[in-house]
What we know:
Number of helices: 1
Largest sheet: 8 strands, antiparallel, barrel
Strand content: over 45%
Number of strands: 12
CATH topology: Porin
Low-confidence stretches: 15-30
CATH class: Mainly Beta
Mean pLDDT: 84
Amino acid sequence: MGQSVAKAILLVGGALICAGEAEAQYRDGPGGHFGISFSAADARGELAGAIDQGFGLELTGGIPLAADGHLRLRLDGGFLVYGLEHIDYCEYSCRVLTELTTTNSILFVGVGPELVLARGDIQPYVFGTVGGTWFVTSSSVDYNDGYGPGDETTNYSDHTFGLRYGGGIRFHATRKVGIDLGVTRHDNGLVSYLTKGDIVDNPDGSITMNPNLSEADLLSFQIGVSIGIR
């Protein structure tokens, strides 16, 4: 965890220094970008012993810090679902079944520098962000009345410091619209979380939770659309 904190300090410090230098520059050329991507993640390290994969969405944005557009301040956030559990039960009568869905999710946000290595129709880039990561398990009830899920409860949650770094390539079909392919390493600290089967329903109506505690590192892959903003 000490190395992660050191990396985070360097990233934030570098971003602040660059931002201060960029303040005096005249901004020319294209501005930043906004993107949305589908994300698939594989667990790494200790987390791989508890879960396999996760899928979700990620939003990214880039604010230019240099006139040539090579250096940007990156903002990103998203979610990954790594577990779903469906249970049918009788609430009033077994003539009508009620569905209980429990979802295990990871939420994350971050900010840090992004360096665009080349300009043009093909733009490789690298980045690093620091922020927070939340592991959340929630349950919702679907009464099968056509209105979708009803009541929802957060069963368990925990959060940790998150360091994310990686890179990718944006292929621009037009000046503003492109395809974004990326890979990201998620270095998370020690965190407590639930997986499928960790909530046990007792005969008296109470529940027992059996949380896991470990480092929670991931490797994720993104494919999405990037839109240039002036």
